Amino acid sequence: MRLNSALTFIFLFVSAALSGPLREKDQSWVPNLVKKSTNGTPKYAGAYWGETDGNFTFATATFNVVPAQQNYTVWVAIGDPSTQSDISWLAAGINTIVTDNTWCYLENSDVYYSNVTITPNDVIRTSITARSATSGAVIIENINNSQTDVSYLLVDATHSLVGAEVRWGVELSFNDSEPIPFDTLTITNVTAYGPSGKNYEAEGATKMEIEQDDKVVISVETKNSTITIQHVHE
Length: 234
Hints:
The protein is mainly beta. It has a single domain, classed as Peptidase G1 (Jelly Rolls, Sandwich). Helices cover 0% and strands 52% of the residues. The chain has no helices and 21 strands. The chain has strands spanning 8-14, 33-37, 42-44, 58-64, 72-79, 87-88, 90-95, 101-106, 111-113, 123-132, 135-142, 147-154, 160-161, 165-172, 174-175, 178-179, 185-193, 199-201, 206-212, 215-223, 226-231. The two termini are 32 Å apart. The model is unreliable at 1-53 (pLDDT under 50).
């Protein structure tokens, strides 16, 4: 089934805690854990899901930093869900796993930690632009203290940046097989520019929830340009 909103995605990715942005890897060791999309197609944790369509050049989101340190990384990314080894993803976001910081990342390149500092209850706006197949730009802003960091990233000669898909994602930490509890996370001003300058928001996008033993443990709700992600307690 092809969804009308196939171009925009809300994506949950499961992984162990790391100090930097987390990258695609097999986490199928988490027992009985699946990601389930709105069209009912389950995928094991660690497997990307999506449709390749469109030509995205810009994506943005605003993250509210929670009052206490949490065990997740939240980000926005532009890239291609195909498995081609010559495709890069451009991403930027916030770590709250080891220490609160902001970063941007170009796949097959280095992680760049920005000079923007964050403290509890800050509001961080992250915008990424795929300028061409060989370069991208990231703007990270702390609305509370007016700090701004702009990074220009170059793709190496063997890869290209293809904006076929946009993802707003949360990477979670697990203790054995159980997700570490976290406060409700709200992502606002979720916007992407697609083909011919068309504007896309969160509502109506394909969303991925996490289920364990046939029960939703991480839920995702969307309304207009807002995403709400919750840990579902027993």
